[in-house]
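pinging the channel bc i need a second pair of eyes. not urgent but kinda urgent?? the chain im working w is below, pasted from the shared doc
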Amino acid sequence: MLREPGVREFAFSAADFERVSKLIYAHAGISLSVAKQDMVYSRLARRLRETRLNSFAEYLALLERGDKIEWEKFVNSLTTNLTSFFREPHHFPILADHLKKLQGRSPIKIWCSAASTGEEPYSIAMTAVETFGAYSVPVSIVASDLDTNVLAIAAKGAYPSDRVDKLSPSRLSRFFLKGSGLQAGVYTVRPELRRLVSFQRLNLLEPNWSLRGPFDVLFCRNVMIYFDKPTQYRILSRFAPLMSPNGLLFAGHSESFLHAADLFRSQGKTVYELAAKPG
């Protein structure tokens, strides 16, 4: 059916947006500004077509009835997964230096709390291998995410050429297998590297996390920007007890935890350490 330009397929009122905002905030802590209204519409309109529902009111009622399958798809739709290998590259030499200082400890425990499609945890793993000069590193990396779709991609570890084109030729040949035939143009993480990372779904707002510290390194980059300050503080207050005394917390370039100075203090370059280290 043809529609006039600018006319939406489904009615989407301010009240609908408010209901969406309340649901995703309560479930995942994601705070949606009014500026995100068009983004929310375009992503959830796909869910209406998929579920063959005729209105946002019907779709939101489905969620409010607790449909578990649709809840997962709803959260996946509203989760932003912008990532790349060695994104914010200034962090990785800092990570390498920290790993060297921890040499002799086994295992060195690392948590990547926003794994997305895997580029970040695999960059952490590559850094560990380069630091210790072998795949048999004393490092354990757990990578979690809220979005089950991206976790499936991450666990597979296969990427089209445009996702790896910024990696150096030496890293590409050392850490990836180049596909051929039907897999031409696909680069798959070598099994030796994949074995260093375990993936699991985790919602940072859930009351109980399945992870156990202490962690020597915690990557939580470009996650807090989706939460309001009270939610950020709540999550940071749960991170702190999971950190080893000399553990490092890596944040995104646009994130600041000054409002949680009693929990973490800045080392510069959006890297944080515990404000009060256990005696």
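so The chain is about 40% helix and 20% strand. and Residues 100 and 131 are 7 Å apart (CA to CA). — does that match what u expected or am i reading it wrong
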